[in-house]
């Protein structure tokens, strides 16, 4: 069996036992019918799973053909340019990234069309005590292979949602599947805020998984929506390695990654995961400390109320001790509520970030494991090729050994090609979902911090309002405003009624000016110049009018407001 093509050990496509088929290859390459009969990438017949997608993908061209096609495209683009126009020059790494994204997008036919959609709307959440809640939702879809376009009153428990997520995460290694939110929040089971938060989180999770065109084409979505109560995944999807093998492989150095964005993305995700865990742990400790503080303040308030019995001759002091003790008890309750609010606003948000970042980190680890498996497959193919070449070099060739060597070489080459295409598909989709997750993370962390800040401000304002209620009781202990017991008997007596420091126009302690230095409609810069040009007139007039109006109400608060108004 002679071959007209010389044997090259580095060329894996050169089968040492096959006859050259140059004329057939040329005929197939030159025939226009072969390109016109290529199968469509997006099947209109139904949702696509991973196996169906790989079957519908057209065969990849060889590297030499791809280079020729790219050179021809570049030449055509150059000819289309007008003679005097300048072509924009890109950096080498940008050009490589652009080429990689275009080639990876050809392996993702689901993202070419936005025709098919699924919409899931939660209508209610049923909960009996601390049992697993039942989520009731409606589904609307235009995907084929469904029995209809709308499905009402679908019931799934939270545990069934976790099973569905576990399958999607294992069966779609190219996707960053969002983690399922917990069935309860830190607000406590049974509270209205807990039910609202759980419903919002689950609705957001439904929106995120249905916005992924790869996940909605999975066949398991049909069983998830159309099956009766008591859903369990029909198909099975597992990661490349589990258990002890996975732990062992994770200890090794990751293989070389030619996709720089994903190589830099995994350390970032791991840092987000670890920092979020640290913040959540410290917030838990702060919450426990606040609850302990609230208990101690309750005890302190009860002890202060007992001091009212020591003032039998002074009714004002007895009333003041009673009111002040009740205020400290209320402040302790506010601290306990604040501890719960901190965990419900920021703590639960950090917990969602921790779960999502862990899923993404493990997905990137699965990609590293597949890359390591590809390296082993390439080494296996090379060894099978060398073994076949060794058999060919013998003087006496056994046909059985030849067939066995050919079969092993064909299987090894096919496995390597499939694994290469799979890794390219995973890398291409992860590059797309990386940007989506970073945008979602930025939006979520801003929302959690904003909610946490608003809750803390509301709590502090409640504390100030509680102390505001007993201000008049403290001031009315005696004619000197309650300060005679502090050794300030010479303090002038009150002639005016004490005004509330909190009102609809703002707080007197906030330091914000309630008067405008610049008249609206005029140039601010010109007004500032006028003020600085006549400082004595403006400031003397404002100071004189203020002193005249509050001549008889000079106390610590008014002095601070005067200083703040004239200084800032």
Automatic annotation (TrEMBL):
Keywords: Coiled coil, Protein transport, Transport
SUPFAM superfamilies per record: PX domain (SSF64268)
Domain of life: Eukaryota
Alphabetized Gene3D superfamilies for the sequence: Arfaptin homology (AH) domain/BAR domain (1.20.1270.60), Phox-like domain (3.30.1520.10)
Keyword presence, Transport: yes
Record GO cellular component, one term: endosome
Statement: the UniProt record of this protein carries the keyword Transport: yes
An example molecular function term from Gene Ontology annotations: phosphatidylinositol-3-phosphate binding
Signal peptide: none
One Gene Ontology term from the biological process aspect of the record: retrograde transport, endosome to Golgi
Domain PX: residue ranges: 118-228
Pfam family, one: Vps5
Ranges of biased composition (kind: Low complexity): 26-45, 66-77
Biased composition (Polar residues): 46-65
Entry similarity comment: Belongs to the VPS17 family.
Physiological role: Component of the membrane-associated retromer complex which is essential in endosome-to-Golgi retrograde transport.
Protein name: Vacuolar protein sorting-associated protein 17
Gene source species: Ascoidea rubescens DSM 1968
Organism ancestry: Eukaryota, Fungi, Dikarya, Ascomycota, Saccharomycotina
């Amino acid at each position: 069996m002679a071959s007209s093509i010389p044997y090259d050990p580095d060329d894996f496509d050169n089968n040492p036992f096959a006859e050259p088929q140059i004329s057939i290859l040329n005929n197939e390459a030159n025939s226009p019918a072969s390109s016109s009969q290529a199968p469509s990438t997006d099947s209109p017949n139904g949702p696509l799973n991973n196996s169906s997608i790989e079957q519908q993908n057209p065969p990849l061209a060889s590297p030499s053909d791809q280079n020729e096609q790219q050179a021809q495209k570049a030449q055509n683009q150059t000819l289309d340019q007008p003679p005097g126009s300048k072509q924009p020059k890109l950096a080498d790494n940008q050009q490589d990234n652009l080429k990689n994204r275009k080639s990876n997008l050809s392996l993702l036919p689901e993202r070419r069309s936005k025709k098919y959609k699924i919409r899931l709307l939660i209508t209610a959440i049923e909960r009996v005590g601390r049992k697993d809640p039942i989520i009731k939702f409606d589904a609307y879809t235009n995907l084929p292979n469904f029995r209809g376009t709308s499905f009402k009153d679908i019931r799934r428990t939270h545990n069934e949602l976790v099973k569905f997520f576990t399958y999607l995460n294992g069966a779609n290694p190219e996707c960053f599947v969002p983690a399922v939110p917990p069935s309860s929040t830190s607000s406590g089971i049974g509270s209205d805020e807990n039910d609202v938060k759980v419903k919002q989180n689950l609705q957001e999770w439904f929106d995120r998984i249905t916005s992924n065109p790869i996940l909605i084409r999975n066949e398991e979505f049909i069983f998830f929506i159309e099956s009766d109560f008591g859903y369990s995944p029909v198909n099975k999807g597992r990661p490349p390695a589990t258990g002890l093998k996975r732990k062992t492989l994770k200890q090794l150095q990751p293989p070389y990654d030619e996709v720089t964005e994903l190589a830099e993305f995994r350390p970032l995700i791991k840092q987000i995961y670890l920092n979020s865990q640290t913040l959540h742990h410290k917030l838990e400790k702060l919450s426990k400390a606040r609850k302990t503080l609230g208990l101690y303040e309750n005890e302190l308030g009860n002890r202060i109320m007992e001091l009212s019995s020591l003032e039998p001759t002074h009714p004002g002091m007895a009333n003041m001790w009673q009111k002040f003790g009740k205020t400290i008890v209320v402040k302790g309750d506010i601290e306990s509520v604040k501890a719960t609010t901190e965990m419900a606003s920021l703590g639960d948000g950090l917990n969602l970030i921790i779960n999502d970042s862990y899923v993404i980190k493990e997905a990137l680890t699965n990609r590293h494991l597949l890359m390591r498996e590809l390296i082993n497959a390439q080494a296996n193919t090379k060894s099978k090729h060398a073994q076949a070449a060794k058999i060919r070099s013998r003087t006496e060739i056994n046909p059985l050994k030849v067939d066995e060597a050919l079969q092993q070489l064909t299987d090894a080459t096919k496995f390597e090609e499939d694994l290469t295409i799979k890794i390219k598909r995973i890398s291409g989709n992860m590059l797309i979902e990386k940007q989506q997750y970073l945008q979602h993370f930025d939006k979520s962390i801003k929302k959690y911090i904003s909610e946490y800040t608003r809750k803390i401000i509301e709590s502090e304002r409640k504390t100030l309002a509680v102390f505001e209620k007993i201000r008049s009781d403290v001031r009315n202990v005696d004619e000197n405003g309650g300060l005679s017991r502090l050794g300030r008997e010479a303090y002038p007596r009150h002639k005016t009624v004490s005004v509330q420091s909190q009102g609809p126009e703002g707080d007197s302690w906030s330091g914000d000016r309630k008067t405008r230095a610049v008249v609206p409609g005029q140039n601010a810069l010109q007004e500032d110049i006028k003020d600085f040009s006549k400082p004595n007139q403006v400031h003397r007039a404002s100071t004189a009018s203020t002193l005249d109006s509050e001549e008889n109400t000079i106390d610590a608060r008014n002095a601070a407001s005067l200083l703040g108004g004239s200084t800032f």
